[in-house]
Every structure is written in structure tokens, then in C-alpha cells.
Amino acid sequence: MASNSSVPPHIVIVGGGFGGLAAAQGLAHAPVEVLLIDRTNHHLFQPLLYQVATAALSPGDIAWPLRTAVRGQQNVRVVMDKVEAVDRATRRVIVTNGPAIPFDTLILAPGSRPAYFGHDEWAAHAPGLKTLSDALTLRERLLLAFENADRRARFAAAQPLTFVIVGGGPTGVELAGALAEIGRNAMVPDFPALRWDEVRILLVEGGERILPGFSPALSSQATIALQRMGVTVLLKTQVREVRDSGVMVGDRFIEPASVIWAAGNRASPLTQGLGCPLDSSGRVRVQADLSIPGDPWIFVIGDAAHCTGKDERPLPGLAPVAMQQGRYVAEVIRNRQAPGQRAPFVYADRGQLATIGRAKAVAELGPLRFSGLPAWLLWCVVHVFFLISLRNRFRVMSEWIWYYLTFKPGARLIYDGGERHSRSGGQP
Amino acid sequence: MASNSSVPPHIVIVGGGFGGLAAAQGLAHAPVEVLLIDRTNHHLFQPLLYQVATAALSPGDIAWPLRTAVRGQQNVRVVMDKVEAVDRATRRVIVTNGPAIPFDTLILAPGSRPAYFGHDEWAAHAPGLKTLSDALTLRERLLLAFENADRRARFAAAQPLTFVIVGGGPTGVELAGALAEIGRNAMVPDFPALRWDEVRILLVEGGERILPGFSPALSSQATIALQRMGVTVLLKTQVREVRDSGVMVGDRFIEPASVIWAAGNRASPLTQGLGCPLDSSGRVRVQADLSIPGDPWIFVIGDAAHCTGKDERPLPGLAPVAMQQGRYVAEVIRNRQAPGQRAPFVYADRGQLATIGRAKAVAELGPLRFSGLPAWLLWCVVHVFFLISLRNRFRVMSEWIWYYLTFKPGARLIYDGGERHSRSGGQP
User: Fold this and answer.
1) pLDDT (tens digit per residue) in A162-189
2) Cα–Cα dist B256/B426, whole Å
3) Contact residues for B348 (Cβ-Cβ < 8 A; gap 6+)
4) Is the pLDDT of residue B212 over 70?
5) Do B177 and B357 meet the contact criterion of CB atoms below 8 Å apart?
6) Closest Cα of chain B to A26: distance in Å?
7) Which of B272, B276, B283, B275 is nearest to B307 (CA)?
8) What are phi and psi of A309, to 5 degrees?
9) How far is residue B157's CA from residue A305's CA, in Å, rounded to a whole number?
10) What residue stretches are annotated with the FAD/NAD(P)-binding domain (chains A, B) (predicted)?
């Protein structure tokens, strides 16, 4: 931290997700000036993004303006801009819409993007789920798929309506479960020409089981729960091709199909310009104190960091990891710890949860493993507890109660007649 | 209604707004088959659309899927499609995405669009407010205007941030008031580089007073209330030019400025192909029974109809007018009234309301005229009462209470980093 004692050091944080925001909040009372840069104007509660994509929640329920989140903090300013690159030589961050921004200390928390295993051309037909914009695109596609199936059923022979979700991790499982619930309970009753047994939801996983981060017993409980809800779970199956008209699953070409990509992530391209060792997912191999090799005042946290845990495996891309990392880095900066003085970052793993549907979830808290209603209630409490504002907590809770009672989610909106997507959508 | 008694007559309704939905619901128990066509999938509570545009409410709070709205009605089917034309000769409606749809009876309720007095090129720089998509575009522009002003204030000399609202009718007044409130109470506190006295809100009206539909006393009360909130009201002033860089108001060119168009409406272009007499706003001059001249089984209702009231002036484009017309037409059809048997449509005018801000509104109920808190409370009750679903009533009410208490509206979201609009936006 190249600073003399009279001028407060300039801390630049790139990304207002869980890690970046936790770092900014951790520096609340430090004698530093913090600039928080994000390409959107809001913090997003990503763990519930799949509910926006499946029309159960509205964007405003799970996002909150970043400026409002740090309004009470005198030493933080927010800049909405896109970061193009980090210039390590001059210690500046290059942004799209203004002069370069100098820093003494940099915290990079730019997150990750969907990864298509070298097939970026699939992205147009199999959108991923990282931003509100992604979720709204996906929502409109899913709703339009029902409208188009209804049209086909009225004017031609009925064809099954197929959704293919690629990737059996928590996001894929949550999307499949939510889609099955919304499809059966909210959508099909609105489309007299469609029957529920004509709607197919395929969850495709390349590995031996879904939710590989959980214990095998919970994986199979989740599989059974999904199957009971009408989801077809395909294991050890590869997606070989995604086109506008359909998708090649194993050696079957399924057409038409709406494809959602939840199979893998790649760190933000920002990491590539740093000149640091990266792993195969583009994540920076950070040191024990989360700094990059050779520069103790540039930190990388969250999904863009490859940070090894006790068993030498990289920590998962979860909100608690990013938040703990943000708080750790804030403390290092607050105490102006020289590299030699820093205790290594240790992730306090409080367990993991994945929800499948109403009253269905799996939980793994250390030695404790359980599923069903207790896991689901815990999941609800944890997620509402972590939502950033009281207002959003209230709105999400009331929306869930409403949905639980009525099965009529209100967010099923196609904004502009679907003209943007009806031509490019998977189901013509 | 060219039908024999064994086949139920086919009623086609174009437009799922207040008029079209009321007509569909009015035909609930009639022995007819109803097809409701809309280019979106939702009914929109347009009177609160300005609150979505000013980030006070979310889209999902004021819209509701049409299919869900008529789910309980066995004789109604919903089609999401765009109606291109009405073929009177073959009695069919031409749609974009399917074969033509035949009808025995047609109810046209396609609404209106912003009108630019022959300057359609202004539309790109001065968006109007008719659809959810419009409201989201407007919201993103307003929020980005603050972000851009903040950027200018950091890197260059501060310039005033100017919003110009064209048109002093209820929509213009409501937008100006809401913008002043959100600007002062929610936005400026989030932008340390901006001062409230550098934000200018201009309400430009060509006529002698704002709210010309109300009594002169209420007009001047509304003017005073707006001025106290920081809005500059310009009367007898024309907007002569709208460009990307700014706007010519009277003989002053204001730059940069974000311009919102609330100055006038034109009926949907669908009316032009009917071969009927239209008024200067493109509205069909309907007969006393709301049918078109020469065809007793084609009706036009709502904003697209020129229907004269007691004083020979056309009825205003208000939700109650459209709803009463929809119910009237449904009754004519239900009773299979021949043209000679029909009593003319009479609008039961229950008064009008316009809101200016928190605890500020004007009301005119027959001889009763009042303003301030009582008018505002009445406005709240009426608007929540008319919202289509219990869920939305609850959400809008809770959102208002939250906003009233905290001044932190949660819908201030820019979805995709504003990349779509930052180039075309009014404030570069």
C-alpha cells in the first residue's frame, strides 16, 4: 500500500457482488477512500436468480441499488462503469466511460460467466444465468415457449414442449425443480390446449450424480424428488450440440427444445490481463492471503479466485466464500498488515443447501445431513436472512407465502410482445 | 351476429386492457366463444405505469397474466399475437404468427400510442409511456441520467441535470411529481456529487393551465404543489424540437436534457384499415351503441373510440370509460340485441383524480372538489381497489407504505449496465 500517512490510501473494488460489497462494508470505519465499481447499479442476490428466471420473483425483489447499500458509509463512492482492464504498471483501472482510475490497493471481485467448453456459439441458444438481464431473457423464453406450444397445439399437431437444463449442480437442480412446479401448477392451468404430460423437463448431467458437492445419499434423494415432480434426470450424458432448432443430448437430437445452460462457469475475462497464473476456469491462483503472486496489494476474491481449502481443492463459488473473503481482505487493509504479518485466509464452512421445490430441499451442515421440509424451511430462513434489505426480505417472504397458498406467481410477464425473442428463441 | 342457434357465436376481442378485459368478463356466462387477443401476455394497470417509470413500483406489481385473469372462465381463450388488420369483407382478423382468425362479432379495444404531432422522429429521444416496455426504457433513462450527471460532476464541471416533461395532463403531472419526489428523496442522497438544486424538472404545457380536464381552482392548486416540490411549470409554451442532445422549449434550447413525452395520444393504427370515419386523433367515430357505421357487430371501445358524451365532446381516455364500454358491449352481445333495440351507451362519470406526490392530489367528484391529503388517500384507495388481483393490491400497498416510511424505493434497477441506452440516451 504505497501511501504516506497524510493522504488516505485509495482502495478500488471491482464488482459489487457478495465479495466486493462485503469488502466495502468491512472498510466502513477505516481511514481509506473506497471506490466501488460495478457495471450495473445494483447488488444482486444471485442465489435466488433462478426464481426470477422461472417467474416466481420479480427483479426488484432480489436486487438493491449499490449506492443505497453503502449510503451510510462516508468513505465509499460508487461508480457505475465497466472495467476493461487493470494496468498493474501504472496502478490504474481502465474503464469504458471515463478516465483511468488510480489505486493503491485493488480488490478484484468480478465474478464469473457461463462457460460453454469451447462452444461459445451455443450461448445464443442456451443462455446462462448470471445477471438480472440473463434472468429476464430466460423468463421471456420460457414463457414464450408455452405460448408457442399453445399456438402449435391450436393450428397443427401437438408436439411435446421440451425444456433441457444442462448441468446438475445446484443451479440446474433448482431451475429444473422450479420449472416443474411453475409449469404444472401455474402455466398448464392457463393453457387449455396443453397437457402436463406433454411438457418434458430434462436435467442433463455429465457426471455420475447430480449435486456432486453433496453426499451421495442426498444426491439420490434429490434425484427421486425431481423425478416425482416430473423431471427426467439423465446422468453420464453429454450435450454434444446446441442449435437454434434443438439440442443433441447423448445421441438423440431433441427438437424443438428450450435449453438453459447451468453446466459450468469461467472467471471474468479481467483475470486474463493480470499476468498471473490462472487455473483451467480462468481463475487467479491466489496466495494464502488472497493477493496475487508478486503484488501484496492486489487481491482477487469470490468466483474469480482459485483459493484452495483444506483438502487442496478450490473453494466453491458460493456467496459465503466470497463474503468471508471480502471481510478478510478488508481486515488486512484496515490493519495495514504487511504480507509477512498476514494469517492465511481460512473458509469457515457452515454447510450447504440446495432447494428442489416447495417443501423439498437438501441440507448438509458438517456431519448433519437432512432433506425434505426441514431442509426447505432452513433454506427459506437462510435466504431471507441474507437478503440485503429489510424491504426485500419482506417482499420475498410475502411472495413465497402468496405463491405457496395460490400457485399464481405474478411475475409471468413478457414485456414487449416477445418480438425480440420469438425469432431467435429455441422454439420457432 | 351471423349465427345459427346451434353453433355458439365467435366473439373476438382485440386488446386486453381495461375495455377488452371488461368485455371478456362481461361475457362470462353467455353461450358464446370468446377469443381475447393481445400482443403481450398481461393486463396492465396503466394508471400506475408512471410509478414503474419512476422506479417506485416493479412491473410485476401492476401487471397480471391475462390467461390467469380469465382462467376461471370456460368460454374465453387467450391468444398472444399482434393483430395486423381487420378484414371486414371476410370477417377475419389478420395476426402476425398464425392463420387469420374468423369472427362473428368483433370488439376492438386496441388502445392508443403517444402522438408526436407529425414529428415521429422525436419518439427516439422523447419516449412516451404506454407499455411496460416503455416504462422500463424510461426508468433506465432516468436512472442513467443521474449516473451520467454524477460522472460529469466527477470529471468535469458540474452541469444541471434537466428533465423535461412535455404535456400537462394527468400523466405529465404525475410523472413530474413522482420524479421530483424520487429525485430529491431517493436519488440525490445516493449521489454525493450532485446537489438537489442542480436538478431541474420542467413541466411544459402548451395550453393555459395544467390538468385542463379539472376545474381552474384545482389546476392552480396542483401548479402550486408542483412548484413547492421543485418543478418548474411552463404554461403556453411549445416544444419545437427534440434532438438527441437536447430539446427546444419555447425559444430556449436546453441541453443536455432527458425528455419524456406525455403530450398527446393517437389511436392504434388498426383503426385506419376499418374504412370508418376517424377523428383527428385516429379514433373511430362510433355510433351511440359503440358499433361502427354500417356494421352493428363490430364495436370499438376505449382509447381507440371517439364516443361523444352529453356535451358532444369525446369521452376522455380513462380506465372507467373503457371498462363501462366493455361491460355495455358485453351486455348487448349477451342479449343478442338487434341494432334497433339497443339503448345508447351512457358514461356514468364518477369523477376524476390526479396525484401529484405523497399526500398531494386533486379530486373532482361531481360538484365535490378537494385536494391535499384527503384527495391523495382517496386516490390510493381507488387505485388499490381497481388493481386486478389481491396479490398486486397487497404488493402495491406494502410498497407504498415502505416508500412512505423510508424513501428508499427498491425498483431503481438498471438491468444491463445501460449499454443499450447509454449511446442513444438524451444525456451522453
Assistant:
1) 999 999 999 999 999 999 999 998 899 8
2) 7
3) B324
4) yes
5) yes
6) 19
7) B283
8) -90, -160
9) 39
10) 10-326
Mean pLDDT of A152-168: 86
Task: Please give the ipTM for the structure prediction.
Answer: 0.86
Question: Which residue ranges make up each domain of chain B?
Answer: 10-39+81-115+265-341, 120-263+352-422
C-alpha distances (whole Å) from B208 to each of A174, B211, B212, B216, B219 are: 58, 10, 8, 10, 10
pLDDT at B121 over 90: yes
Q: Is pLDDT above 80 for A332?
A: yes
Gap between the Cα atoms of A133 and A152, Å rounded: 28
CATH architecture label of B120-263+352-422: 3-Layer(bba) Sandwich (3.50)
CA distance A206 to chain B (A): 31
Inter-chain contact B60–A413, Cβ cutoff 8 Å?
A: yes
Residue among B71, B154, B190 minimizing CB distance to A68: B190
Write the pLDDT tens digit of every residue in A54-98.
988 888 888 889 998 898 899 999 999 999 999 999 999 999 988
Question: Exposed, middle or buried: residue B131 (CB in 10 Å: 0-12, 13-18, 19+)?
Answer: buried
Burial of B73 (0-12, 13-18, 19+ CB in 10 A): middle
Fold match between domain A10-39+81-115+265-341 and domain A120-263+352-422: yes
Residue in chain A closest to B389 (alpha carbons) equals A410
CATH no. for B10-39+81-115+265-341: 3.50.50.60
Distance from CA of A194 to the nearest CA of B (A): 13
- Characterize A415-425 residue by residue with b for buried, 16 or more Cβ atoms within 10 angstroms of its Cβ, and e for exposed: bbbbeebbeeb
Chain B residue numbers touching A51 (CB-CB < 8 A): none
Q: Do A408 and B389 touch (CB under 8 A)?
A: yes
Q: Do A418 and B80 touch (CB under 8 A)?
A: yes
End-to-end CA distance of chain A: 56
Kindly report the pTM of this predicted structure.
Answer: 0.89
pLDDT at B7 over 90: no
Chain-chain contact of A59 with B64 (C-beta, under 8 angstroms): no
List the one residue out of A132, A190, A220, A171 whose CA is nearest residue A47.
A171
- pLDDT tens-digit map of B394-418: 777 777 777 767 766 666 777 654 3
Is residue B309 within 8 A of residue B347, CB to CB? The reply is yes
For residue B182, the chain A residues in CB contact (below 8 A) are none
Q: Report the largest interatomic distance among the alpha carbons of chain B, rounded to a whole angstrom.
A: 77
